[in-house]
Design a protein that fits this description.
The protein has strands at about 10, 35-45, 55-65, 65-70, 80-85, 85-90, 95, 100-105, 120-125, 130-135, 140-145, 150-155, 175-180, 185-190, 200-205, 210-215, 225-230, 235-240, 245-250, 275-280, 290-300, 310-320, 320-335. By secondary structure, it is mostly beta strands.
Length: about 325
């Protein structure tokens, strides 16, 4: 085990719950100010070449203590992988090397595997006894699959999102992140604006009856990379820019303008409030790479009489010509 590696402390507005399988905190338990919350970079590990068939891992999700599901951008055929990633909360460091424990093939209708190039997987989350996956690039869809990858259904995108000549999800500005909330509600986020919208006006969509939709405004020269549910209204959002520049934001739909059913944005809509809780600019020792996915880790042991509790968040990053890395962060939350 490695000793602790502390990066810069970043105060921010964040209250952490867990993914849908772990029972996230209700919005009413989220202080508006987020006073006293801080984030630290702690450690990194390499996935190396422990799976010979994947391209680059773009998404991961916690499925249990030390257990995760990973998805590759475009494997042959497209696959997801169950993995064990050991981590010690006591020392805030990774333990041993990641190991594959299972997985499956992402199948389309009629149990036909996706052909190479027909999907660009950007994320995976545990949901409804199986998984939900999201594909961007040239073939954008949100798909629910069973525990071994069998096709269940594709979730219908709203009319404004459907690819057309001058509207809809647009290539690398299209679907990029996926979250599952406390009641199993599925949310997706675009990397940037739809074709008919401003480049920085990304949209967050939560499927339901009816759908809920909001504007998430990215920083200039950045795109969103992933989204992770805190509760029904609050999310962690990963943004990335050129080189090693990346930030993690707490964002909320509370107070934002609902834009469900709106074909084109005016630019005057009130976007989701966001507040930065981490920036790679403050951590020169972090080999950030191209950060692409967020996942919860375990809570750290509670210390009696301490004024805060901590929880781990993992970020997967791609680096051209180098092994995929997983970075850990400790987030301290006031009790």
């Amino acid at each position: 085990m490695r000793p602790r590696l502390w990066g810069a402390t970043i105060a921010g507005a964040l209250v952490l719950g867990s993914s849908s399988a772990l029972g996230v905190q209700p919005a009413s338990a989220t202080p508006a100010s987020g006073a006293g919350v801080s984030a630290f970079y702690t450690d990194s590990t390499s996935l190396g070449t422990f799976v010979p068939t994947f391209n680059q891992i773009t998404g991961l999700d916690r499925t249990g203590n030390g257990r995760y599901v990973l998805i590759a951008e475009d494997a042959l055929p497209p696959r997801f992988f169950d993995a064990h990633i050991g981590y010690s909360s006591e020392t805030a460091s990774f333990v041993g090397s990641p190991a594959i424990t299972g997985g499956g093939t992402v199948l389309g209708p009629w149990f036909i595997p996706q052909l190479p190039g027909t999907a660009q997987f950007e994320g995976i989350r545990k949901s409804n006894g199986g998984y939900t996956v999201v594909s961007g690039g040239g073939n954008q869809f949100v798909r629910q699959i069973g525990p071994i990858g069998q096709f269940i259904r594709d979730l219908p995108l709203p009319a404004a999102w459907r690819p057309a000549a001058k509207s809809g999800v647009a290539g690398q500005r299209g679907l990029t992140g996926l979250a599952v909330g406390p009641q199993g509600q599925i949310s997706v986020i675009t990397a940037g604006g739809l074709k008919q919208d401003a480049r920085t006006s990304a949209r967050l969509l939560t499927f339901g009856k009816p759908n809920r939709e909001f504007v998430y405004r990215t920083d200039a020269e950045k795109v969103t990379a992933d989204v992770l549910a805190i509760n029904g209204t609050d999310f962690l959002v990963l943004e990335r820019g050129a080189g090693r520049l990346a930030s993690i934001y707490w964002a909320t739909t509370r107070g934002a303008t609902g834009v469900a059913g709106k074909h084109k944005l005016t630019g005057k809509e009130k976007a989701m409030t966001k507040r930065r809780v981490f920036s790679t600019a403050a951590t020169p020792r972090l080999a950030a790479g191209d950060m692409s996915g967020l996942a919860w880790g375990n809570w750290h042991p509670d210390t009696p009489f301490a004024k805060a509790r901590s929880r781990t968040v993992l970020v997967v990053s791609q680096t051209a010509g180098s092994p995929t890395r997983v970075h850990s962060f400790e987030l301290q939350l006031p009790k």
